[in-house]
Amino acid sequence: MTTPVIIDCDPGHDDALALLLALGSPGLDLLGVTTVAGNQTLEKTTRNAQRILALAGAGTIPVAAGAGRPLVGALTVAADIHGESGLDGPDLDGPVAEVAGVHAVELMRRLIRARDEPVTLIATGPLTNVALLLSLHPEVLPRIAEVVFMGGSTERGNTTPYGEFNIVTDPEAADIVLRSGLRTTMIGLNVTHQALATDEIIAEFRAMDTRVGSVCAELMTFFADAYRRNFGFGHPPVHDPVAVARVIDPAIVRTEKVAVAVELAGTYTRGATVADLHRRTGREPNADVAVGLDVESFWRLLMAAVRNVSTAGTAGSVSRPSAPA
């Protein structure tokens, strides 16, 4: 039994690993990939999603570009972390399939309606596309099993003192998703900072002696340098694959049911996720919030998936069928 998923992303080094984890996991059926502006501009994040799918020999999976800016305000990209391309480090030039001829929100709507069983949305970038889908097409809500998003924190932030990048980039979108009434899981920095790409992890990627393993090692080497330079971290946290791991094996990520609100107006706290861990507000829980990670099982799952993708090779066709009507 596989879980049908759509990944909405802004690749991004850790988004790339999240895509590879999904592609290499037999328990997931990746229906499509949608892109949003975040780590880099929409043009670049879309190109990066195509490059990772091509690397994995998965070019038949439809890709659609979505929102190029947040619902409110201007876009600020993370070139200091992900470089000018959004995937600086390895050479990923090569042929890619064309993007689907529809907006990301429309592709999500079509893919969801085409399935008999509910679809899980995994969001690893700003939640703009997901918020637009829920607002413009409320009829699909009963067909969505869950929204699992990487974003927020129960502790400190990484973009502002209390704000995590994906949520700070589009707080209004995150607010819409968290107030939607859907089953929602928040995978925040408090947990993803435990998933560190150590020197040993990078060496394990390289030791696979495959194109995919080498790309992962090069991505994490660049990422490590960026985190060392910007945050003083000894090893970089790979945030986004933790959200995918939660869907594959929920036991890997421990969660608690919590009332979560997004701060929209604070002078110093706009974009903060206010998680009522001690139930002080009296509000009903609206999210499963990640509070713990089985680090060893997470890396074992990710390594197995990358090996699976490597074994599948990169010789698959990059042709793509039309998106479902």
From TrEMBL:
InterPro entries: Inosine/uridine_hydrolase_dom, IUNH, Ribo_hydro-like. This is Nucleoside hydrolase. CDD domains: nuc_hydro_IU_UC_XIUA (cd02651). Residues 5-300 form the Inosine/uridine-preferring nucleoside hydrolase domain. Gene3D superfamilies: Ribonucleoside hydrolase-like (3.90.245.10). It comes from Paractinoplanes rhizophilus. The keyword Hydrolase applies. PANTHER family: INOSINE-URIDINE PREFERRING NUCLEOSIDE HYDROLASE, URIDINE NUCLEOSIDASE. Keywords: Glycosidase, Hydrolase. GO terms for molecular function: hydrolase activity. The keyword Metal-binding does not apply.
